């Protein structure tokens, strides 16, 4: 499998997850977001160059995004 990051396709060696993150219920009630209770599923992924990426799947659109790079 692969992931597109910074305009390039990177092969995925391995990954682990998901870790589901969401707003606490008391903050979700005050949020102005159209879907405040929607959680994100985060994964740690190693690409074919050995970089460790923190990626998530938006459960509303099923799109994948790179949130950050582990140092």
Q: What's the helix count?
A: 1
- What structural category arises from helix and sheet content? mainly beta
Give the SSE string: EEHEEE
The fraction of residues in strands falls at over 45%
Regions with pLDDT < 50 over 5+ consecutive residues? none
Sheet of most strands: 5 strands, antiparallel
Could you tell me the radius of gyration in angstroms? 14 Å
Tell me, briefly, the overall form: elongated
Intertermini distance: 23 Å
Strand order of the largest sheet: 1-2-3-4-5
Helix content: under 10%
Task: Please characterize this protein's 3D structure.
A five-stranded antiparallel beta sheet has the order 1-2-3-4-5, with no helix packed on it. The chain is elongated and about 40 Å long. It is mainly β and 71 residues long. The chain is built from one helix and five strands, in the order ββαβββ. It is 6% helix and 56% strand.
